[in-house]
Amino acid sequence: EAGVAQSPRYKIIEKRQSVAFWCNPISGHATLYWYQQILGQGPKLLIQFQNNGVVDDSQLPKDRFSAERLKGVDSTLKIQPAKLEDSAVYLCASSLENVQYFGPGTRLTVT
Amino acid sequence: RKEVEQDPGPFNVPEGATVAFNCTYSNSASQSFFWYRQDCRKEPKLLMSVYSSGNEDGRFTAQLNRASQYISLLIRDSKLSDSATYLCVTRSTLTFGKGTMLLVSP
């Protein structure tokens, strides 16, 4: 069974630039999550989708971060404009019931 | 008090040792808990679910203490390949701890 796919795997941008990440969840998984993991920290939930609706985006910095899951499958996470403190690994996960399965992540470096 | 707290370690143990980690949580309404394992520069992978009655899978045992609001992970007969960071998470709020690093040496 294919796992959660993410792209790109690595991205380096300058501050104030924009960046977008893509996630394709495990087939049939209705719930999709985006996490931010800063070095030395645990993953921090940014947003949770159930199909194409937002369940929780309370920790998403909405002045610069946005996410969508228009058809209830793939999802994109965008940062505009990026700040130095956005340097982190952005993890996408999906779940059918309680257990979350993570993708390999996108490592973002903002210079 | 942070919602989920873990001792960051590192825990340095020799092969064959038994080691245990705890994870405390502040939300008494939390129902479901999980332990994930994360290797360096990799994504978290599910290790075990934590049930009220405890859960054992080979060398790994997970337990829940609701009265004291913590979950534990016990690893028996440690292997070199057990070296990783162990993350706990409460399912209700999807809050992860910072993780506990385990280093198993020959």
Helix content of chain A: under 10%
Counted beta strands of chain B: 11
Rg of chain B (C-alpha, Å): 13 Å
Backbone shape of chain B: globular
Q: What are the secondary-structure elements of chain B, in order, as H or E?
A: EEEEEEEEEEE
- What is the H/E order of chain A? EEEEEEEEEEE
Structural class of the helix and strand makeup of chain A? mainly beta
Q: Could you characterize the architecture of this molecule?
A:
Chain A has 111 residues and is mainly β. In chain A, strands 2, 4, 5, 6, 9, 10 and 11 form a seven-stranded mixed sheet that branches. A four-stranded antiparallel sheet of chain A has the order 1-3-8-7, with no helix packed on it. The radius of gyration of chain A is 13 Å and the shape is globular. Chain B is an all-beta fold and 106 residues long. Chain B is 0% helix and 53% strand. In chain B, strand 6 and strand 7 form a beta hairpin. The chains are: A mainly beta (111), B mainly beta (106). Chains A and B meet through strand 5 and strand 10 of A and strand 5 and strand 10 of B.
List the helices and strands and how they pair.
The complex is a heterodimer of chains A (111) and B (106).
Chain A: E1 5-7, E2 10-13, E3 19-24, E4 31-37, E5 44-50, E6 53-56, E7 65-68, E8 75-79, E9 88-95, E10 100-102, E11 106-110
Parallel strand pairs in A: 2-11
Antiparallel strand pairs in A: 1-3, 3-8, 4-5, 4-9, 5-6, 7-8, 9-10, 9-11
Chain B: E1 4-6, E2 11-14, E3 19-25, E4 33-38, E5 45-50, E6 55-57, E7 60-65, E8 70-75, E9 84-90, E10 95-96, E11 100-105
Parallel strand pairs in B: 2-11
Antiparallel strand pairs in B: 1-3, 3-8, 4-5, 4-9, 6-7, 7-8, 9-10, 9-11
Short descriptors:
heterodimer; A: about 110 residues; mainly beta; seven-stranded mixed sheet; four-stranded antiparallel sheet; B: about 110 residues; five-stranded antiparallel sheet; 11 strands; about 0% helix; about 55% strand
